[in-house]
Specification:
Layout lengths: L4 E6 L4 H15 L3 E8 L12 H19 L3 E7 L8 H6 L3 E3 L14 H14 L10 H5 L9 E5 L5 E4 L4 H9 L10 H15 L4 E8 H7 L3
Parallel strand pairs: 1-2, 2-3, 4-5
Antiparallel strand pairs: 5-7, 6-7
Helix pairs in contact: 1-2, 1-6, 2-6, 6-7
Length: about 230
Amino acid sequence: MGFASALVLFAHPDDAEYMCGGTVAHWAGNGTEVHYVVVTDGSAGSNEPGMTREQISGIRKPEQDEAARVLGVRTVTFLDFPDGMLEVNLETRMAEVLVAPDPSRLWFGRRYINHADHRAAGELALCAVMPDAPSRPQFPELLEAGFEPYEVPNLWLSTEEPDTYVDITKTIDLKMEALTKHRSQGVEDDLQWVRDRAKELGEKGGVEYAEGFLAFSLKEEEEAEGR
């Protein structure tokens, strides 16, 4: 399956590499123009004594840029909402414009037990693509800035209960390399788990390594409902 472009939306630097790094590398390698939107500033990603939010963010943003380059991502945009304090409100909904985390069936860790920012990022993605929204009256400032409403044709949620699998056998090593760029997050301890998880999903998808998603073709669903 090929796409002309893809927007990957996630809460923190390193989330994308965990949830879909192999898929991103696969798509980018086959001509898809991939863009990242990081909703928070990553500024709460350390428990080291004496570290400020500004210092932590200043470390994590360059790490994310490095990881994105490994995978072939075209651009990385930080929305800079405070890490650990992400809420679903009109301000954050206006900032969203898709691959995203499933807010109910999460892609990382135990089902239903996860970082609140991950849930919020997934919910914000759903707010952006729900039928007939966002409407013009909701965000007139976007119209004034020259942005017209846009209907996202395809939504892929990274989830523990996928129905679509992407073969990342040829890009699993790029996924692992990209993860190692997040040096401040101690990802080395997760590398074997990440590979094992990709192997497990590969078995379900009939390949060696895979990533799994819950995929929606939104235009097809609207046509089927007669909208």
